[in-house]
Specification:
By secondary structure, the chain is mainly beta. Strands 1, 2, 5, 6, 8, 9, 10 and 12 form an eight-stranded antiparallel β-sheet that branches.
Length: 577
């Protein structure tokens, strides 16, 4: 039906459908314009539709001018149906050619009263089917059929509702007129076609699943992001916990429009998974954010804390499920449905998107390691503050891999501890291009770096110190306290100098320090070339202060005149080379 005619029906459909008094619909096949030998299928007239079918027979029903009848052959069927939901068939009188009429000793699938060439059925049905299955090859030649539709002289009015909320307040099984208007359209959130069109429709307040909607209208279509506006008669049901509205044929039934691209389909954002356990959002398009996805017993579940919700691939979107879901977070969209028995909610998912967390780490924070542990093994977007000093060697340890370090710090040298030469007491480093999470490195940047912005990297919480001989090179994710006078610890500080701590202080995060069991300092080279990192010292101030040797003997106040060795001043060690 074209839109102009539908709009006309919209104007007409303000009337209330009533059930008329009993009426007869008369089919005289000689007067219906059939040509000789024409196959016959659907024969509609008024509020009655006759359907002739070949079914399991060898020949299809056809009209012949000889006898002016529709011939129904062995194992053909004839279906009698009211096309008006407000009317039922109460009586059918069938007249046959006298030479091809029903037999009294044959079961035609319905109860018939037969008198010569007239057969009568009586009852009260919306539809029923006659099957021509005699023992021999007899045919039935239908010349006339009179169908009586009931009304009983009464006038029955169906409820009128103007919202899905009002529709869902009706008793299941109720026939009702539903009207959508411009201020409250029926927005089509999702469409699924299996055996029949299945549309999930939401108005301003709630949602209902629509079934078999205007199936006989060749111009009808449901379209995601479309909207229904107009008036239609249907039956409200609750099927296995799902609210449903099924269209029924009636006058003005197709006085409803589907307007394409009426709205942008936006799922309802659900804050807690537990909100979907009840029936509030059944048949509605919903989205739950940042939930886990687990596979148990061959079935997937959404999880958040102690809450779980089963999901099912009703619509054929299995390719949306990632191969590896462990420890990850997802935003999941779908229609809230039910289990097969209707006792529990399930999500008929339509989209599963992994959530990539935004992780902020800072060299001054004492919570980095905890945060890194929470997101261990997950892909994240990271903003990590770590200032590198230009033109000087720095230590660096990061909780993610970097495949090409020059992408982050161009014109730089990155070096990993690779060996120790005991004869020269030298820690040997080798230049590398990539950085491995948790491993400590030396880096010499030739441009300022304050922040590492990394997208889609996998977090690794494991620290991986490098140990060679009596030396350990240890990376840190949180600031670490270095205690005054601890000569087993050395850190790289200003002026390319390795320092023992002379006061108790904290080494900032995402750095590394050296730990040694010897009293000596090591030389450091990269690719066999000296780094220029100078001798470790406690402080470089030769000012006054009593100096003692390790035996506790006072030996003076000026360190510049001391021979090589280890000394104490003001509770701190001094190493003179």
């Amino acid at each position: 039906m074209n839109k102009k005619l539908r709009i006309l029906f919209l104007l007409l459909s303000c009337c209330v459908l009533t059930v008329a008094k009993a009426e007869d619909v008369v089919f005289v096949f000689a007067d219906m314009g059939f040509i000789n030998a024409q196959e016959v299928t659907d024969v509609p007239l008024g509020d009655v539709n006759l359907t002739f079918s070949k079914a399991e027979g060898q020949n299809a029903p056809a009209y012949y001018t000889k006898g002016a009848a529709i011939r129904v052959y062995k194992n053909n069927t004839v279906k009698f149906a009211s096309s008006n939901a407000s009317k039922k068939i109460t009586k059918v009188v069938m007249t046959f050619d006298s030479s091809n009429k029903p037999l009294s000793n044959v079961d035609y699938g319905i109860s018939l009263s037969i008198s010569d060439n007239v057969a009568t059925w009586e009852g009260e049905e919306e539809s029923f089917t006659l099957i021509n299955r005699p023992a021999d090859t007899s045919k039935l030649w239908f010349t006339k059929i009179v169908v009586t539709l009931s009304g009983g002289g009464s006038s029955e009015v169906y409820p009128e509702v103007t919202s899905l909320t009002d529709l869902k307040a009706l008793e299941p099984g109720t026939l009702a007129w539903l009207t959508f208007g411009r201020d409250n359209p029926g927005n089509i959130e999702y469409v699924y076609e299996a055996n029949a069109t299945e549309a999930y429709v939401r108005d301003n307040a709630t949602a209902v699943r629509f079934f078999d909607f205007l199936p006989d209208d060749p111009g009808w279509h449901t379209h995601i992001n479309g909207a229904l506006i107009g008036r239609v008669l249907g039956k409200y049901e609750v099927n296995n916990g799902m609210p449903e509205f099924t269209h029924v044929d009636a006058s003005f039934a197709d006085s409803i429009l589907c307007l394409d691209y009426w709205h942008e389909s936006e799922p309802r954002k659900i804050g807690q998974l537990s909100e979907l356990a009840g029936s509030t959002y059944r048949a509605d398009l919903v989205e739950v954010e940042e939930v886990g996805l687990t596979l148990t017993g061959g079935k997937y579940y959404l999880s958040h804390g102690s809450d779980q919700l089963a999901i099912t691939d009703r619509f054929g979107h299995s390719d949306e499920i990632p191969d590896n879901v462990k420890g990850k977070s997802f935003n999941v969209t779908g229609i809230l449905g039910t289990s097969s028995d209707g006792n529990a909610s399930q999500l008929y998912f339509t989209k599963i998107l992994e959530v990539v967390p935004e992780l902020v780490l800072d060299e001054n924070l004492y919570t980095n390691a905890n945060t890194i542990g929470i997101y261990n093994g997950r892909d994240v977007n990271v903003s990590l503050t770590r200032k590198l000093i230009t033109g000087s060697w720095n230590t660096l340890c990061l909780p993610f891999d970097i495949a090409d370090f020059s992408d982050f710090v161009g014109s730089s040298k990155l070096a990993a501890l690779s060996g120790y030469d005991a004869t020269t007491n030298t820690l040997e480093f080798t230049s590398v291009n990539s950085l491995e999470a948790g491993v400590p490195y030396l880096v010499y940047p030739e441009q300022d770096v304050d922040v590492f912005n990394v997208f889609g990297s996998t977090i690794d919480s494991e620290l991986k110190p490098v140990s060679l001989a009596s030396w350990d090179f240890i990376g840190i994710y949180d600031p670490v306290t270095l205690y005054a006078g601890d000569t087993s610890v050395l850190f790289l500080g200003e002026g390319n100098t390795l320092y023992y701590p002379n006061v108790t202080n904290d080494l900032k995060a995402f750095r590394a320090y050296f730990k040694t069991s010897s009293e000596s300092c090591a030389n450091i080279c990269v690719d066999g070339i000296s780094t220029g990192i100078t001798t470790a010292t406690l402080d470089g101030n030769d000012g006054d202060g009593r100096i003692y040797n390790v035996s506790g003997q006072f030996i003076g106040t000026q360190s510049s005149s001391l021979p090589k060795g280890v000394y104490l001043r003001n509770g701190n060690k001094i190493i003179v080379k």
